[in-house]
Amino acid sequence: MRYLGVFFFIAGLAVLCACGGLHSFSADIDQSNSSPGSHSIDVMAKEPPPARVRVAASTTTASPAGKLIALTFDDGPRPYVLFGSKGIHPAPGLVDVLDQNGVKATFFVVGWRLTPRTWGEPRHEENIGVSCIDAAEQLTRRGHELEDHTYSHLELRSAEKKNGEQWVMQDVDRGAQAIKAITHTQPRYVRPPDWIITNDARRDLEQQGYRVLTISSENPIALRDVNSLDYLCAGKNPTGCPKPSLADGVLKQLDQREKKGTYTHILAFHELSTTTAAMPRLISDLKARGYRFVTLTEYMKLVGAKPGETKQQASATREASVVALSR
Predict the structure, then answer these.
(1) Is residue 176 in some structural domain?
(2) How many CB atoms lie within 10 A of CB 124?
(3) Which ranges constitute the DSSP H helices of the chain?
């Protein structure tokens, strides 16, 4: 019996110890749930800091940080488009639409327009009392970029056949000098009218330090212009305009590029009133998809390759840029 008593004594001590430990654990839970004191602070301190959580989220290609749009416009400056028509059918200005949406764009301008007292083509454009030079200066003051769309705006392959390659080089350079007189910066990018240029002329321009933008499949897809087809929507009786709308047509093209894993795009538009009308909805839809708008210069820093790089080199540069952007 004496041994049996000792057994029950030891068993009782074990139960008491176990109950004491369980009570201590339960007390910790109750205090952390019922009081905003020291236990709550300890729990919060164990969670990852908010900044680290945001960085982890931005590393995916679907995040806003990795989805880029470089919005570009050709054929200007056209003051009546940039600052609004004041005729029978007043229309908002493209610059105001961009500013209201916090978007900085890149304008590929035509050199002959940047001459004194020039406001546009008298037969087709409205004179709103603003010269093309004034319009270009306002664009730069508002943070937009000016790049080269040649001086003459002639189709360069035909012009080269008629006048020689040297004429093409001089036409591009003459356009660049007209831009430099306003921006005090040498243009770095050239978009040939209708994207048409011979391989020899393109190579020689790149050797001079220009980056030639085209829609050629020879370029990596992220460095290939997206042709918006907005010029098919202009005029009183447009034919060929994307259906059901210009914005839908552009979004459909981006869907196809996204299916191939491309989430960075250079969108090519023109300074047209019909294009201006489509911009608010398009910008809103692209922002809703997580896209961020950047100038062409910023886009090329993040995505682009140097002139003359191969597709493989450009791809490696692009991947490294996306990784750097996500950090």
Answers:
(1) yes
(2) 7
(3) 2-34, 38-45, 50-57, 79-82, 94-100, 132-141, 156-163, 165-183, 199-207, 246-259, 273-288, 296-302, 311-326
Of the candidates 267, 265, 278, 266, the one whose C-alpha atom is nearest the C-alpha of residue 238 is 278
Q: What is the pTM of this model?
A: 0.75
CB-count burial class (<10 Å; 0-12, 13-18, 19+) for 323: exposed
Total tally of structural domains belonging to the chain: 1
Considering the domain boundaries, does residue 40 fall inside one? no
Structural domain boundaries, residue 264:
68-326
Condensed to tens digits (0 to 9), the pLDDT of residues 198-227 reads 999 999 999 999 999 999 998 899 999 999
Does residue 163 sit within a domain? Answer: yes
- ω before 77 within 30° of 0 (cis)? yes
Q: How far is CA 3 from CA 9, 11, 13, in A?
A: 10, 12, 16
Residue 52 within any structural domain of the chain: no
Chain segment 60-105, per-residue pLDDT in tens:
333 334 899 999 999 999 999 999 987 766 778 999 999 999 999 9
Judge residue 182's burial from the number of C-beta atoms within 10 Å of its C-beta, 0-12 exposed, 13-18 middle, 19 or more buried. middle
What size, in residues, is the chain?
327
> What is the CATH number for 72?
3.20.20.370
Contacts of 20 (CB under 8 A, 6+ apart): none
| pLDDT tens-digit series, residues 7-58 | 444 444 444 444 444 333 333 333 333 333 333 323 223 333 333 323 222 2
